[in-house]
Amino acid sequence: MTVLMALLVGVLYAAGTYLILRRSMVKVIFGLIFLGHAANLMIFTVGRLTKGVPAFVPEGAAAPPVPFADPLPQALILTAIVIGFGVQAFTIVLFKRTYQVLGTEDLDEMRSTDQLPPEVKS
């Protein structure tokens, strides 16, 4: 299971990096989404994958029974999901506004803000 998750994380990182390097804004957004999911899965995998064993400490014991899942990475992932969603929403709004102003989604055509149309400069 850990090897499968490691391969999945690698594929998501590769796909996210590939998409971020493309010229289309939509592909950049999907690349950010893939990178966020890959980071979350990596943190989840580091916290140990155990099937059907909660991280509860039985009454009278000093530690949970082995094997157990570490709950800290799971809490960090919940926070990362919220932050990632905020970044993705901001990126979508930023790219939408850029498209409205410049009229293109091709990142190579957006060379500088000095080349804005005359109606936007005022």
TrEMBL record:
Task: Give the domain of life.
Answer: Bacteria
Q: Which InterPro entries does this entry report, sorted A to Z?
A: CPA3_antiporter_subunitC, NUOK/Mnh_C1-like
Q: Which residues cross the membrane?
A: 6-21, 28-47, 75-95
Report the PANTHER family cross-referenced here.
ANTIPORTER SUBUNIT MNHC2-RELATED
Name this polypeptide is given: NADH-ubiquinone oxidoreductase chain 4L
State the family it belongs to: Belongs to the CPA3 antiporters (TC 2.A.63) subunit C family.
Task: Tell me what topology the record assigns in the membrane.
Answer: Multi-pass membrane protein
> What positions belong to coiled-coil segments?
none
